[in-house]
Amino acid sequence: MIESIYPPKLPEWLSSGGEDFEVVLASEAVYVRNIDGKAFPNRLNEMELKDFRRSLVGNIENTLRAFKLWETDILRSEDRRFFVERFSAPVEILERPIGAALFLSEDESKWLGLNTSDHLQFRVAKGGSDIETAYRNARIIEESLENEVPFAYSSRYGFLTSRPTECGTALVLRFYVHIPGVIFTDGFINLRDKLLKSGTVLRPLNDESLSSEGHIFIVHTAHTLGIDEEELLGSAQEMLDEIIQMEYEARADIMSKARSQIENKIMRGIGILTHARIIAKREGYALANALRLGAAESIIGDAIDILSATELYFVGQPVHLARLTGEGDELTADTNRAELFRSYLKQGD
Amino acid sequence: MEYCSKCQKRPGEVKCVIVVKGERIKCCLCHECARSAGFSEQIKFNRKPKSPGIRFIAEKRDVFCPNCKLGFSQFLQTGLFGCPSCYNAFEKFIGDILKGIHSATYHKGRGPGKEGLQDLTHLKWKLSEAVFAEDFERAAQLRDEIFRLKKDSN
């Protein structure tokens, strides 16, 4: 069973937090590679995809022997969603599972998607802001695979990918950031525009993660052509440092100017968590946001720590919730969510 | 009835404007001359020359990738290339697109590994494909080639 291998809680690689964890949940390096002379997955039919998967797996499984292999068309749709909910698979496996595969490391920090949007797509993640370690480890995998399969490459366009947005280094550096301070101080538009100018995209994790209590955003590099990997790493680190600095300053600012309003929001969150009997998915995200900020700013004492508050994001999602509390209709799920969240608060007591 | 401005033989069906040295010249082409001038098959030719409202879409001829047969117009719709060869096939058209996305049109940085190692990886991959396709004669040739390359590099 998937849930026994990967418990439906915080993924292991995230469970020890990391540097600047109050602001940066995780840092990821994602490489995209294709095989020379072979049509991309979007031009292959089901049979060709499956044949190609067999051949590709045969070539790389020795390099990835520490990984567990899942053929995504054999997985149930809720299993695929389970992996995506916890950042342990590329989202493409939800839409195009046929002929695709997923290699996943034991702690889930590394995954390799096969026949998704491209032939190979692999990611290494680290908790907190340590993008350099994530990048160096991803590079080790890339270099190992390079000895096993010939990558599609041209001296002009670099590593060739199905999307023109990724050709060149075909490396994307990505961060999950929690920036309620920036939001409260109306600095979001400024930050977004500033990042856009430096070739970085800022977008919400999903629509439901947006709330007035703060937000989780994905920040990722958007340029892969005309910039080498070390330059990209340097500029991404610089940009991340700026976001962290901006968020800490904004938090200090709101805590000095509007402490009572912030405390009010967060303590109301605790109140809901303690007494609510029904918590919808969107409200769950909002609560997680508020409690994460409360834990980071030591507003809520020992009621809940930052790791448990982060875990609420994961366990409040539909498949995780169903795995932990059982299947049911929407009302049952919302009731179960309220009960589960309440148990987290008790744990922290 | 207006005759084709080019061949002067067949009835004119496609009205177009040609710009020569900044001067706009109105002309009317027949089906065959229009096609040879580069208008695509997607033009809806009106077979009734007397009909006043001739409807057509003047588009340039689509370009196809020789390897995966993807048309450039299809790439524009999906935003996805079909294979690595598409980059060369559409080279003339993608410069502006790449510049818009990356503010650059040339790769900077490392390529895949060392030259000798790359050849070996290619051969190993071809060998696995030959074995997979049960083409054992080709597989034996590739195996010998790999052996020779390894021996040379030692």
Summary?
Chain A has 349 residues and is α+β, with helices and mostly antiparallel strands.
Can you put this structure into words, describing what you see?
The complex is a heterodimer of chains A (349) and B (154). Chain A has 13 helices and 10 strands. Chain A is an alpha+beta fold and 349 residues long. In chain A, helix 9 (259-275) crosses helix 13, helix 10 (281-296) packs antiparallel against helix 11 (306-315) and helix 11 packs antiparallel against helix 13. The mean pLDDT of chain A is 91. Chain B is mainly alpha-helical. In chain B, 42% of the residues lie in helices and 9% in strands. Chain B is built from 6 helices and 2 strands; from the N terminus they run E-E-H-H-H-H-H-H. The chains are: A alpha+beta (349), B mainly alpha (154). At the A-B interface, helix 2, strand 6 and strand 7 of A face helix 4 and helix 5 of B.
Break the fold down into its secondary structure elements and pairings.
The complex is a heterodimer of chains A (349) and B (154).
Chain A: H1 2-5, E1 24-33, H2 46-60, E2 68-71, H3 77-85, H4 92-95, E3 101-104, E4 110-114, E5 120-127, H5 131-146, E6 153-154, E7 158-159, E8 171-178, H6 180-184, H7 188-197, E9 200-204, E10 216-221, H8 229-257, H9 259-275, H10 281-296, H11 306-315, H12 318-325, H13 330-348
Antiparallel strand pairs in A: 1-5, 1-8, 2-3, 3-4, 4-5, 6-7, 8-10, 9-10
Helix pairs in contact in A: 9-10, 9-13, 10-11, 11-13, 12-13
Chain B: E1 14-20, E2 23-29, H1 31-36, H2 72-78, H3 86-89, H4 91-102, H5 115-132, H6 136-153
Antiparallel strand pairs in B: 1-2
Helix pairs in contact in B: 5-6
Q: Please provide the count of β strands of chain A.
A: 10
Helix content of chain B: 40-55%
- Shape verdict of chain B: elongated
Distance between the termini of chain A: 32 Å
Q: If strands are numbered along the chain, what order do they take across the biggest sheet of chain B? A: 1-2
Distance between the termini of chain B: 80 Å
Provide a count of the helices of chain B: 6
Q: What shape does the CA trace of chain A take? A: globular
Count the strands of chain B? 2
What percent of residues of chain A are in strands? 15-25%
Q: How would you spell out the order of helices and strands of chain B? A: EEHHHHHH
Described by strand count, sense and barrel closure, the largest sheet of chain B is:
2 strands, antiparallel
* Sequence stretches where pLDDT stays below 50 over 5 or more residues of chain A: none
What proportion of the residues of chain B form beta strands (DSSP E)?
A: 5-15%
Low-confidence stretches of chain B: 43-59
Number of H/I helices of chain A: 13
Q: What is the H/E string of chain A?
A: HEHEHHEEEHEEEHHEEHHHHHH
